[in-house]
Amino acid sequence: MKHKIALEMVKAKLPEKRYKHSKRVAETAVKMAEIFKGDKNKCFLAGILHDFSKYDELGEMYQYVTKYKLDPELLSYKSAVLHGPIAAVKMREEYRVEDEEIYQAIMNHTSGRSHMSLNEKIIYVADYIEPKRSQPGVEAIRSLIFDDRNLDVAVYEITKANMQHLLSKDQPIYHKTLECLNYYNMIKE
Ligand code: DGI
Ligand code: FE
Ligand code: FE
């Protein structure tokens, strides 16, 4: 898919704020691709497209879970986690975005998972550190990326912060989120 088409598609579908966030994630991901020798084209596209289904109707999302045999466990997590997998299957099945790495990067951008590919990790981190994000601790993660250049530690710290936040609010933890935490805990450094 051409970048211009992707930008137009997302601009037409999402509210202005979410469109701008998507653009910042794409730009941050491209910057990271330069540092970590990732694929700038894949990073831009996955960044622009990652939140495509953020505001899809829940009923429609449920139909896609059945139709494309996605993990039924996802239904318990509503749009918070589902919007990644739904955007990924829509891009593959309806928009002919056939690249497996872009598919996985969009699919897993909220939960992460173990054994992520380079470009998949870049999207996971770029979503968390794009310039308008201001959650506590984000500056330390930016420094891990742009100063220390340690992608795996950044993935670990983001997953840990996410999980601490979810637990503090008594939210259930999706298995991929937990697997991501454990995997990057063990391989970091
Ligand atoms: O779509 P964004 O706002 O840009 O960011 P995101 O796709 O990372 O969405 C994060 C949301 O996903 C946030 O509300 C927390 C939620 N989430 C991620 N992992 C889990 C989770 N929610 C639950 N309950 N369990 C998880 O394991
Ligand atoms: Fe998202
Ligand atoms: Fe996002």
TrEMBL record:
EC number: 3.6.1.41
Reactions catalysed, as given in the entry: P(1),P(4)-bis(5'-adenosyl) tetraphosphate + H2O = 2 ADP + 2 H(+)
Domain called HD/PDEase: residue spans: 14-141
Signal sequence, renumbered to the chain: none
A molecular function (GO) term: bis(5'-nucleosyl)-tetraphosphatase (symmetrical) activity
SMART domains, A to Z: HDc (SM00471)
Xref: InterPro entries: Diverse_Catalytic_Enzymes, HD/PDEase_dom, HD_domain, YqeK
Keyword entries, A-Z: Hydrolase, Iron, Metal-binding, Nucleotide-binding
Domain of life from the UniProt record: Bacteria
Statement: the UniProt record of this protein carries the keyword Electron transport: no
Protein's name according to its UniProt entry: bis(5'-nucleosyl)-tetraphosphatase (symmetrical)
Higher taxonomy: Bacteria, Bacillati, Bacillota, Bacilli, Bacillales
